[in-house]
Amino acid sequence: MRICRCPNQATKLLTGPAPIKWKKMKIEQATIYRCDHCGKVQFRKGDMTKHEKWYKLNPTNLHACFKFCQNLIKSEERYEVDGGYSAYGNGYSGMRTVFTCKVTGMEMYSFIAERRKLPVVNDGNSIRMPIQCDHYKNPENLIDDSNF
Ligand SMILES: [Zn+2]
């Protein structure tokens, strides 16, 4: 995160072009926080910290699996939560997306699951999708080049 203390820049970036009829110039000093990855600006440091943490182009969020890895299996699974502690006692069920690596057989989750605080993150059976992976298989590898 970069910190900019230029009042003109802050005003221009956050409020758009200046109004045409300015009677009196008003200078406001503001501290803005700029994202290292996409250049977005925000006034509050906490907002920018959060933005950078969950931004998809943050290097820690660039999962190899999501670069069209051919070993990534995406499937849907029904889950059920029993109503043991619920006042209504009925529980509920739904569908969830499950990511599995074809090579390791491991179930995996992405930074999106972390951001949403999904149970898969802490279930002990899943790993965070890697950023660099020896099993990564590029879609280009699928092209049959035996005829060339
Ligand atoms: Zn950003």
Key traits:
single chain; 148 residues; alpha+beta; 2 domains; four-stranded mixed sheet; three-stranded antiparallel sheet; 3 helices; 23% strand; binds zinc ion
Strand order across the largest sheet: 4-5-6-7
Strand content: 15-25%
Are any ligands bound, and if so which? zinc ion
N→C terminal distance: 48 Å
**Any idea what the shape is?**
extended
Report the average pLDDT across residues: 85
Report the biggest beta sheet as strand number plus sense, adding barrel if it closes: 4 strands, mixed
Spans of 5+ residues with little confidence (pLDDT < 50)? Answer: none
Please characterize this protein's 3D structure.
- With 148 residues, the protein is an alpha+beta fold.
- The protein folds into 2 domains: 2-19 and 26-61; 64-138, no CATH class.
- Helices cover 16% and strands 23% of the residues.
- The protein contains 3 helices and 7 strands; from the N terminus they run E-H-E-E-H-E-E-E-H-E.
- It has helices at residues 7-15, 45-54, 111-115, and strands at 2-4, 32-34, 41-42, 72-81, 92-101, 107-109, 126-128.
- The strands form 2 sheets. A 4-stranded mixed β-sheet has the order 4-5-6-7.
- It is extended, with a radius of gyration of 23 Å.
- The chain starts with a strand and ends in a 20-residue tail after the last strand.
- The chain binds zinc ion.
Element layout with pairings:
Layout: E1 2-4, H1 7-15, E2 32-34, E3 41-42, H2 45-54, E4 72-81, E5 92-101, E6 107-109, H3 111-115, E7 126-128
Parallel strand pairs: 6-7
Antiparallel strand pairs: 1-2, 2-3, 4-5, 5-6
The chain binds zinc ion (ZN).
Zinc ion binds at residues 35, 37-38, 40, 51, 55.
